[in-house]
Design brief:
The protein is mainly alpha-helical. It folds into two domains: 49 residues, no CATH class; 54 residues, no CATH class.
Length: 129
């Protein structure tokens, strides 16, 4: 079942921040977000636990990967991979959320996402909005 099967009105807010603000401003009754945005907005005082309450949390999902083009030379890919995986030894690693370092992943680490897409019956055009 899809969200629109449960709710009278279903809309796309455009971003996680916008979804949280829509709940706070009572434009919508509920919204989907991620734990990083919710925490950041609480910390900045943009929302409160009184205006925006977590109703349900999913099992953890893998984060957004860093990628390079498949056609790059193998030695360049190895240098890029090494620089990213070892960056924390030389710099404060930053990104979306609080990071200490990057780790190598493989396609199998994202199987949970592919399974979710299949279970929900999502099509590529549904996900590219």
């Amino acid at each position: 079942m899809m969200p629109q099967d449960f709710f009278g009105k279903f809309t796309y807010s455009g971003s996680h921040d916008a979804a949280e603000l829509a709940v706070k401003n009572k434009t919508v009754d509920a919204a989907a977000d991620n734990d990083i945005t919710y925490g950041k907005m609480l910390k900045k005082g943009l929302i409160t636990k009184g205006t925006n309450r977590v109703l349900l949390e999913s099992d953890p999902l893998p984060g957004s990967p860093l990628v390079y083009r498949k056609a790059l030379p193998e030695d360049l890919k190895a240098r890029i991979r090494g620089a990213v995986l070892n960056a924390h030894k030389d710099i404060q690693v930053t990104g979306y959320g609080e990071l200490s370092h990057y780790v190598a992943v493989s396609p199998k680490d994202y199987q949970v996402v592919r399974d979710m897409v299949r279970e929900l019956g999502l099509r590529k055009k549904d996900m590219l909005k």
